[in-house]
Design brief:
This protein has helices at about 10-15, 25-30, 40-55, 65-85, 120-130, 140-150, 180-205; strands at about 1-5, 20, 90, 95, 100, 105-110, 110-120, 150-160, 170-175. By secondary structure, the protein is an alpha+beta fold. The protein has one domain: Lambda Exonuclease, Chain A (Alpha-Beta Complex), CATH 3.90.320. Strands 3-6-7-8-9 form a 5-stranded mixed beta sheet. A hairpin with a 3-residue loop joins strand 4 (about 95) and strand 5 (about 100). The longest helix is centred in the C-terminal third of the chain and has 28 residues, at about 180-205. The model has no long low-confidence stretch (mean pLDDT about 95).
């Protein structure tokens, strides 16, 4: 594994991720775990195969209002997190494992990571009342722990619509509490990477 000190959404960051299975999409890979891959995972495999063949970002990639809001508000959430914990958050960079990788939102000390989600009020409230991290990001968070080899990751939900003392909610996941899930991810991801290779081979054979 090689860690690259690059900024998220930069050209260098995009180039490093090209054709690799990344943690933000591990939820697609882990769907139907133990069974055949579903259509979303198959579409993702096609995306990665095309990126590997063409050497450029696939047209599958997209941006929406939620993603744009996240990019805009992430620095605010990061600052609040730093103030709350009296600590600096370093650049997350990219953990490169050749065929897969991971880009956490930040590194915390020598043992931790942070994943920031800037969300709408209803989603933030659901996290608040749940008393735990948003399960929609379960496999991304587990992927952070696996790819980085770090001890913990802080899931951080941010919503500016809430009162100042409730705008930031943080839940910590420890790697030693998710040993089985990490192993499941590794096995399923290996199967998925094989699927990408099969799709790539079929495309090239038919050209």
């Amino acid at each position: 594994m090689i860690w690259h000190d690059v900024e998220q959404n930069s050209e260098q960051w995009d180039a490093l991720r090209l054709g690799k299975a990344t943690a933000s999409n591990y939820g697609l890979i882990m769907a139907n775990d133990g069974k055949a891959f579903g259509e979303p995972a198959k579409r993702y495999a096609l995306q990665l195969a095309l990126e590997q063949i063409k050497g450029c970002k696939s047209e599958f990639a997209f941006s929406n209002d939620h993603m744009e809001r996240g990019h805009e508000q992430e620095p605010i959430a990061r600052m609040l997190y730093e103030e709350m914990n009296f600590i600096n958050v370093d650049n997350g960079g990219f953990f490169d494992h050749v065929t897969y990788g991971d880009s956490p939102d930040g590194l915390v000390g020598s043992d931790g990571l942070i994943e920031i989600k800037s969300v709408i009020a209803s989603t933030h409230y659901a996290t608040l009342t749940r008393g735990s991290f948003d399960p929609a990001y379960r496999w991304q968070l587990i992927g952070h722990l696996d790819c980085s080899g770090r001890d913990w990751v802080d899931f951080t939900s941010f919503c500016s619509d809430f009162p100042d003392n409730k705008q930031l909610i943080v839940y910590r996941l420890h790697a030693d509490e998710f040993v089985n899930e990490i192993e499941r991810l590794r096995e399923r991801r290996s199967e998925f990477i094989n699927l990408v290779s099969e799709v790539k081979k079929r495309i090239l054979e038919d050209v």
